[in-house]
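Supplementary Methods. Inverse-folding protocol.

Structures were first reduced to a discrete structure-token string of length 118. This string, shown here, constituted the complete conditioning input.
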């Protein structure tokens, strides 16, 4: 069974940076599409980054140019580099793996808190 564990969250000042990690166990990262989501209190969950098998990445306008998703396949770990952080980036960040086949396999991590404050 595939398990995900996020790490790297914490406190940051506006304009600062954090790098989140999503470590995969029980499965092979490269078999999956990887998404990072975030959810702030009272708000809907928002997808903030995607990386597909080809290495192509996708971001919404809210984080484009500031966030970078990447993978280290030998380490079976995905990352979310977050730069130029803003208070509105404060949320719980979770990674999600998706595999499409005879059925869709979806795995979520428990999430890690990111708080941006001055």
């Amino acid at each position: 069974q595939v398990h995900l564990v996020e790490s790297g969250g914490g406190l940051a000042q506006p304009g600062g940076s954090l790098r989140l990690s999503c470590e995969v166990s029980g499965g092979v990262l490269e078999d999956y599409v990887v998404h990072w989501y975030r959810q702030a209190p009272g708000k809907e969950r928002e997808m903030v980054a995607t990386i597909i098998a080809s290495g192509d990445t996708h971001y919404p306008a809210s984080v484009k140019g500031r966030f970078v998703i990447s993978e280290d396949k030998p380490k079976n770990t995905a990352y979310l580099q977050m730069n130029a952080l803003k208070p509105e980036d404060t949320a719980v960040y979770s990674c999600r793996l998706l595999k499409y086949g005879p059925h869709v396999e979806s795995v979520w991590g428990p999430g890690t808190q990111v708080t941006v404050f001055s």
